[in-house]
Amino acid sequence: MSKQKFTNLNIVTEIEVYDSSKHLAEKDQQLLLESKKILKNAYAPYSNFQVGAAVLLENGEIITGSNQENAAYPSGLCAERVAIFYAGAQFPKVDIKTIAISVKSKNVVISEPLSPCGSCRQAIAEYENKSGKPIRIIMSGEKGKIYIAKSIESLLPLMFSKKYL
Ligand code: THU
Known about the structure:
alpha+beta
């Protein structure tokens, strides 16, 4: 038998799991509520899948966004990036502390937390790298548990960043 030529890199990721939003810190509950409130502004006629995001900045400002779809599908944008890019555009010098994400589907009941798509993770990673401070990510479904990641590193191990450039 030939000797194995590789070792395994086992990556451990940590997510806090809460049974419901009432177990969250009050500030986190408020931010999550803001992300829920903005769901109604989602423009999602193609997927019927509404997403709301609320970004808390270090100066206490809360920026909200919702997904905006397009008949040319890739031209649409996720709620997380709508909110994060707006925050970056309006407050370029203010760091992002936390992002809360909510969801509502017209087709099914979402009973698990919505975890941001790969492109949104990469965008969150960019702002975390820009500030050098972790961004907390609060994820919720329409019902069920709430997840909190303390940093994008928990959702995007081995991320590509400016350190390679
Ligand atoms: N969507 C988001 O807004 N955020 C995510 O993290 C996942 C997906 C949107 C994009 C599209 O408008 C709809 O949900 C279905 O993919």
